[in-house]
């Protein structure tokens, strides 16, 4: 198994810095640390959706408009420049959004399919053949986890990767270890989710 950006040298360097270096108390100081070696991280109190709620609020306060529930299915070009995108809202009405700048978060396959205009055949063929993996969450409520720390205290891990090749799950996440506000009774329940491949 290969972990991106991780090597024996980086592990040893990190270990020496942690042991003999000056410690900074803020989490931002870890931004130069390899992801797999970070011990603490910043996480929104009510989960990652809180970030997008803040972005939406900032857009609205800045005079922007939010159009939720629109399925974008056409990207209109003038030459090589995108001039508008079209979509269908929840009422089935078609809406056109002209603009100067566009950012896409669509899957590349859907984005290329939506482009109205001439695209090189190779681009269309590659986009059509891109594989995507379904991301399935299964929520489990457990009154108590059988697995504990060595001293018998509750498990501190936020997630546990499942390495067995015959198990079709990627990892087990324990959400009350991410943030106690993500469960209704953080002291009595362990809220775990399994990420299936």
DSSP strand count = 8
Q: How much beta, percentage-wise?
A: 15-25%
Main beta-sheet annotation: 4 strands, mixed
Average pLDDT rating: 79
Evaluate the radius of gyration: 23 Å
Ends: how far apart? 17 Å
The unreliable regions are 188-197
| SS-based class | alpha+beta
Q: Spatial order of the strands in the main sheet?
A: 3-2-1-4
Number of helices: 5
- Summarize the amount of helix as a percent range: 10-25%
Which shape, going by the Cα principal axes? Answer: elongated
Order of helices and strands: HHEEEHEHEEEHE
Please, could you describe this protein's structure?
23% of the residues lie in helices and 23% in strands. It has helices at 8-20, 49-61, 108-114, 121-128, 175-178, and strands at residues 71-78, 81-88, 94-98, 115-116, 136-142, 159-161, 169-174, 190-196. A hairpin with a 7-residue loop joins strand 6 and strand 7. Residues 188-197 have low confidence and may be disordered.
């Amino acid at each position: 198994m290969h972990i991106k950006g991780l090597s024996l040298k980086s592990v040893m360097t990190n270990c020496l810095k942690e042991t003999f270096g000056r410690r900074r108390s803020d989490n931002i100081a870890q931004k130069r640390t390899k992801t797999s070696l970070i011990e603490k991280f910043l996480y929104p109190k009510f989960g990652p959706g809180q970030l997008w709620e803040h972005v939406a609020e900032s857009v609205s306060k800045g005079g922007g408009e939010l159009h939720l529930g629109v399925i974008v299915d056409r990207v209109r070009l003038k030459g090589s420049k995108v001039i508008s995108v079209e979509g269908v809202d929840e009422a089935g009405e078609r809406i056109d959004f002209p603009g100067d700048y566009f950012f896409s978060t669509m899957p590349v396959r859907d984005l290329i399919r939506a482009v109205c205009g001439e695209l090189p055949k190779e681009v269309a063929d590659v986009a059509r053949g891109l594989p995507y993996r379904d991301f399935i969450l299964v929520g489990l409520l457990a009154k108590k986890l059988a697995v504990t720390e060595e001293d018998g205290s509750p498990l501190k891990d936020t997630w546990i990767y499942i390495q067995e090749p015959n198990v079709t799950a990627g990892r087990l996440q324990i959400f009350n270890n991410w943030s106690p506000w993500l469960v209704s009774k953080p002291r009595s329940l362990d809220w775990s989710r399994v990420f299936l491949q």
